[in-house]
Amino acid sequence: MSDLMKQSPYGVFLDHCKKGELAYQVNADDGKAFFYPRVVAPGTGSDKLEWRVSKGLGTVYATTVVYTKDQPPHNVALIDVDEGFRMMSRVEDVDPLGVKIGMRVQVKMHPGDEKQPTYPVFTPILTPDPSPPAERGASSSPSPLGRRGRDEGRGGGK
Amino acid sequence: MSLKRGSVAVVGAAESDLGQVAPHTSPVDLMAQATMRALDDCGLKLSDIDGVFSAASQVRTAPMTLSEYLRIKPRYFDGTTIGGSSFMTHVAHAQAAIEHGLCEVALIAYGSTQRSVSRAAASPREPNPYENPYRPFMPASAYAMAASRHMHQYGTTREQLAEVAVAARKWALLNPKAWEKEPLTVEQVLKSRMVSYPFTVRDCCLVVDGGGAVILTSAARAKSLKKKPAYVLGVGESLSHANISSMPDLTVSAAAVSGPKAYQMAGLKPSDINMLSLYDAFTITPLLFLEDLGFCPKGEGGRFVASGAIAPGGKLPVNTSGGGLSYCHPGMYGLLVIIEAVRQVRGECDKRQVKDCNVALAHGNGGVLSSQCTVIFGAPSTV
Fold first, then answer.
1. Contact map slice: A 26-85 vs B, CB within 8 A
2. What residue ranges in chain B does DSSP mark as E strands?
3. Domain match, B69 and B170 both
4. Chain A residues with CB inside 8 Å of B201's CB?
5. How confident is the model at residue A128 (pLDDT cuts 50, 70, 90)?
6. Exposure of A39 by Cβ count < 10 A (0-12 exposed, 13-18 middle, 19+ buried)?
């Protein structure tokens, strides 16, 4: 059992972020990855957990663009990370409406600021994709910017 | 042991004042006002209430605070808080309590002043270091991502989503209590201010003040009261996740679990339902629930609503009050979803009354598609 007097799951995750690493946990009993980090494995309660560092590659599972007053619109997405877990994040370095489901992305650390500690965001992978996993590669689009949705070009948010 | 079909009934139902209430009104003021109206609706007195069920984002200890306000000492109470579907859960839990003799007259109440105090003040965000850095506009962004999946997998369009808002508006124009009073077109929905793509502000529920109350009692006692009882024929409750990143499949809600549970208890199937009251927090939600509750195949929700099926004159009346999109949405809207279903089986809906409405289904949604709870109400002819 992890010792919460010494370290917390988020504390470990954050330490990895500070080193530029996207960390996640695996249940050692069944080898299944999960996210967000916990003190026990979800579903089984096992305390045999291993921390691992992701290769940082993933695929956009779902996406939206948030419009706030006095700020440019920003992306929010759910990313299926190749090691088998899903997380919320943001895809940067691309028009937020250009983030498409199926798009291949790679992690990078956002430095954060005084109030917000460093945190992982993603950036599109330009071809060639270093290692598209077989199960996702089959359904993903050949375009580096992913599948063009049928609403492309509409609803620019103004 | 399972709950018994028709063992309890809603005998009183009422809204509080709705819309924008006077400055300094409290959520509990609204609960108390609705409670007295619901008691008046059935002819019972405050002293008859021996079970209190309540949840509200602005009142952390709702059953306790409401009991103090009303100065009642309930034998049984339950403050289950799982978002907008809390009150469907309260119906199920009240039914269990009444069946076991733990209480006989149950009050379920809700109130919110989110328009007056602001949504951010009424429902402050919980800390979550794995989501908050990305500044999702919650809950809208979670539902928007569910819509993005539905559009991607099934070709659902923004126009089809807008049809949900347009149908709701048509119903609202038949409800004198509805907040919105003007017609709405698909074009207007699409051209409104974008909130979280693909949702404009017209794809999103209203932000208003309001509340409601319902009174439940045993079937035996219900028969002697003022109005026709709305019997609880079936209930189903389900939780699937809390945070949207933990939802297994964004195109399938746990209504696919709660619905069949409620149908099984009621001994009914979707084709037996005369009217649906579906929690419409965003235009994607009725669409998902129509699919998950068995009214159209998975993926067909967009085409189903675009056919005009759910609008006045359509083949399946949905959200006849005008829904959270056009009638009233004071935060956790589920209790008002129940009230409309009750009124429809009682035949009290005047211009928007569904003909021969003997069975109505009220479906609640909470969190970010997280909790799904279904209640099926029946007129006396069904028990």
1. 35-36, 61-68, 73-74, 76-78
2. 8-15, 51-54, 76-78, 105-112, 194-196, 199-200, 210-218, 230-239, 275-278, 359-366, 371-378
3. no
4. none
5. low
6. middle
Domain of B287, in residue numbers? 138-204+234-382
pLDDT at A140 over 70: no
* Chain B residues interacting with chain A (CB cutoff of 8 angstroms): 129-131, 133-137, 141, 144-146, 148-149, 151-152, 155, 157-158, 190, 193-198, 200, 243-246, 250
pLDDT at A150: 37
Yes or no, beta carbons of B134 and A67 under 8 Å apart: no
Identify from B135, B149, B152 which residue to disrupt to test chain A contact, counting A C-beta atoms within 10 A and taking the largest count: B152
- Note the pLDDT tens digit of each residue in B263-298: 999 999 999 999 999 999 999 999 999 999 999 999
Predicted pLDDT at A127: 72
Paired strand residues for B211:
B111
Distance from CA of A63 to the nearest CA of B (A): 5
* Pick from A76, A87, A154: CB nearest B136: A76
Phi first, then psi: what are they for B61, rounded to 5°? -115, 55
Q: What's the rounded Cα separation, in Å, for the pair B128 and A13?
A: 13
What whole-number percentage of chain A has pLDDT above 90? 76
Residues A15, B173: Cα–Cα separation, whole Å:
56
Q: Is the pLDDT of residue B126 over 70?
A: yes
Same domain as B151, residue B79: no
**Could you tell me if B184 and B330 lie in one domain?**
yes
Distance, in angstroms, between A141 CA and closest chain B CA? 12
CATH of the domain at B172: 3.40.47.10
Q: Which two tokens stand for residue B185?
A: 């077109």
Contact A76 B155 (CB under 8 A): no
- Which ipTM score applies to this complex? 0.96
A65 and A47 fall within a common domain = no
What global pTM score does this model have? 0.93
Whole-number Å distance between alpha carbons of B7 and A156: 53
Model pLDDT, residue A155: 34
Interface contact flag, B136 A87, Cβ < 8 Å? no
